[in-house]
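User: Predict the structure for this protein chain, please.
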Amino acid sequence: MSTRTIAREPVCPVRGARPDPPEARDPSSPAVLIVAFGTSTRASLTFSFLDRELCRRLPAHEIRWAYASDRIRKQLNAAGSPETRLRSVPEALAELQADGFTRVVVQPLYVVPGEMYDRLLATVAGFPGLRTEVGGTLLHRWDSVHRLIGALAQDFLPPEEGCNVLVAHGTPSTASGANAVYLGLERTLARRHPNTYLGMVEGLVPPDDTLTAALTHAGDRVRFIPLMVVAGDHVMNDVMGENGEKSWRSELEAAGKRVEVPTVRLGDAELYRGLGFVPEAVAVFVDEIRRAMARL
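Assistant: Here is the predicted structure, written as structure tokens:
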């Protein structure tokens, strides 16, 4: 398995600031507000790559960023400067409105339509004075599920060498619509790639179930493939144990398994490959943005 190298252009590690003075594009065109949960890890470079890709694919539209996590915003804003201050969704919408935009597509970088997506819909619906549409999540449609599996399958280990584990975040709520997506994804993997399992940090599939499946599978290799846009804290620590604590990796290696994760090299940084670096995933997000624009 090789590391994919991506040419790095001079972009900010975490994008969130409003242009100052505003250099917005034509306000008659819809603006795009990208909503990320946020991360305080080096995986924030994923946002830089995504920002560059979205600007390239949607050159006629103003693209801004907002971050859903109060904790991440508070942490990074305390350590940063006013010029790089991260905005909440209401703050970013208010700034777009002040800059003359009347139509905005709000596109979350969420994988499944769960509680965070529902919360975003409520936040956007409660914002006055703008025409808004919220784009779907990465796996909002079954054709997107199949597209993504097809793209990720290029990195799957063959059954005789070991197994693969798609690492999702999961949700603690039994009522979340995300569970239906996860069940459908698990069924699709079982039918098409029987040596590939779905793992979750929390929720429907307990980590112990995933580790047991990986330990009992033939072959000595286990390849973790992040099913998260940003392969940040959960992949670095819960899965790979970079902080030195007990992790999925440490349990498997103690049993004699060899553990690996696909990586990308961006400039001088080597990162675990989140879905934000997968071209097919980026294409799905762009499709969701264009669908939402058509509804404005």
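The CA atoms of residues 111 and 138 lie 5 Å apart.
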